[in-house]
Design brief:
Keywords: FAD, Flavoprotein, Monooxygenase, Oxidoreductase. By secondary structure, the protein is an alpha+beta fold. It contains twelve helices and 20 strands. It folds into two domains: about 240 residues, FAD/NAD(P)-binding domain, CATH 3.50.50; about 150 residues, D-Amino Acid Oxidase, Chain A, domain 2 (2-Layer Sandwich). The strands form three sheets. Strands 5, 6, 12, 13, 14, 15, 16, 17 and 20 form a nine-stranded mixed beta sheet that branches. The structure holds flavin-adenine dinucleotide.
Length: about 425
């Protein structure tokens, strides 16, 4: 999929049209569910209807398994975007979802890292160009709400996939399968339960999977900004002493912002009106995109991390943020979640014998350990190295960036790693 579809403005939905479509979809879903009886037993029950759970439910049902997806539909548009790398786009394409998203996504052709720590040892800016890998773009930036909407539509159309619009309140696991109790009443049994319910995972807890949690003295501020100058499909990550400040290209001279700052500063910035906030962002971006104005909802997310001791338990597996959480640096989280989905679909295989058999789960666990551990460690180390403000640490980070600048094969290896193409 090297050549991505070009942007087609005539297909871009307005925010109002998108909201209208979302509401109409909710009514249609409620109507459909009122007429769809709850199955008592399925092959696989996926819990959690975020992007990862939706993708997993579609992928597993495409293998021929009888699947139920348990969880309320995704929330309203919050203006957050995700950068999805080439590996994830291939997965979405395989799931038949990419064609609906291509017209509203924005390509990431160049990724630039600028050391803005003000430290004594500062590396020069480093840029990575997709062309060096023979690609038009490393990936595409897309609003999370548009992504979940497209996945949700595909899930609704999928034969063999039942949507259950309810929270799970209890999960139990045994040698023969798992059971989910629903907030709306009733239970559902499955040979395999997949926990995709985010960081507070009932499946993970029921399986007794240890989760290590930690927090960072940072809050991520998010916003969409319109600007006077074009971004030329380039994403820029300024590494500041409080964390990365990243602008990711969107359509029509707009960019999405993810800015990690100390919680107290985040509170001050969040309290600014849109005009003052845009002026601060413009200054922080060294005015490289010209005058800026806020063009969508703003958000704030406290930064934390989570890693699990194993990805499976008896008759269950955990994927997405049920299994790994780390700060949004280098666009890794959801990309990793989609690779969980691909690995789970491969481990469970096409329909035939038991999807929750211990050997299949062991193969999924083995497949995910290294990828998840290395991404979690790399993001954590980079983030902490910025916060440390310690010369030897700055030097190590700076030398790493300079090596990437100078050594072509190393840079290309790092780019392929970032895209998830080596995973
Ligand atoms: C500011 C920010 C920017 C980011 N940018 C990027 C990026 O550019 N690229 C990237 O790859 N990643 C990015 N990420 C990470 C990415 O957003 C997450 O990895 C991804 O959203 C996780 O998806 P998920 O489906 O695993 O979890 P969630 O999105 O949390 O979905 C979990 C779902 O489960 C449901 N649920 C919860 N409990 C229950 C229950 N008991 N029963 C049923 N359902 C339940 C919830 O309602 C929700 O719908 C970013 C994260 C942040 C915070």
């Amino acid at each position: 999929m090297a050549a991505r579809d070009k942007v087609d403005d005539t297909h871009e939905p307005t925010a109002a049209a998108a909201r209208g479509a979302f509401e109409a979809h909710e009514v249609e879903m409620a109507d459909k569910q009122a007429h769809t009886p709850l199955p008592e037993q399925v092959d696989i029950a996926v819990i959690g209807g975020g992007a990862v759970g939706l993708a997993a439910a579609i992928a597993l049902s495409r293998q021929g398994w009888d699947v139920a997806l348990v969880g309320p539909p995704a929330g309203r548009r919050d203006g957050r975007t995700v950068a999805l790398m080439e590996g994830s786009l291939r997965i979405l394409d395989d799931l038949g979802v990419w064609s609906a998203l291509a017209p509203i996504a924005s390509p990431l052709a160049t990724l630039t890292i600028i050391d803005d720590t003000g430290g004594l040892f500062r590396a020069p800016p480093v840029s990575f160009h997709a062309g060096e890998l023979g690609l038009d773009a490393f990936g595409q930036n897309i609003e999370v709400a548009s992504l979940t909407e497209a996945l949700s539509d595909a899930a609704d159309r999928r034969p063999g996939l039942t949507r259950v619009d309810a929270l799970a309140t209890r999960v139990s696991l045994g040698a023969d399968g798992g059971e989910v109790t629903l907030a709306t009443g009733g239970t559902l049994r499955a040979s395999l339960l997949v926990g995709a319910e985010g960081r507070e995972s009932l499946v993970r807890d029921a399986a007794g999977i240890d989760a290590r949690r930690w927090s960072y003295p940072q809050t991520a501020l998010t916003a969409i900004l319109a600007h006077d100058r074009p971004h030329h499909d380039a994403s820029t990550e300024f590494h500041t002493r409080q964390g990365p400040f990243t602008l990711v290209p969107m359509q029509e001279n707009r960019s999405s912002l993810v800015w990690l700052v100390e919680p107290a500063r985040a509170e001050q910035l969040a309290a600014l009106d849109d005009e003052d906030f845009a002026a601060v962002v413009e200054r922080q971006a060294q005015s490289m995109l010209g005058r800026m104005r806020v063009d969508g909802p703003r958000g704030a997310v406290p930064m934390s991390g989570l890693s699990v001791s194993r990805f499976t338990g008896e008759r269950c597996a955990v994927i997405g943020e049920a299994a790994h959480v780390f700060p949004p640096i280098g666009a890794q989280g959801l990309n990793l979640g989609f690779r969980d989905v691909a690995a789970l679909a491969k481990a469970t295989g096409p329909v035939g014998s038991d999807p929750g058999a211990a050997a299949r789960l062991a193969s999924f666990d083995r497949a995910r350990r290294l990828d998840v551990a290395t991404r979690t460690a790399a993001v954590d180390a980079l983030n902490r190295s910025l916060l440390a403000g310690f010369l030897p640490v700055d030097m190590a980070r700076g030398l790493g960036l300079m090596a990437l600048l100078a050594i072509g094969p190393l840079r290309r290896f790092a780019m392929r790693q970032g895209l998830g193409l080596n995973a």
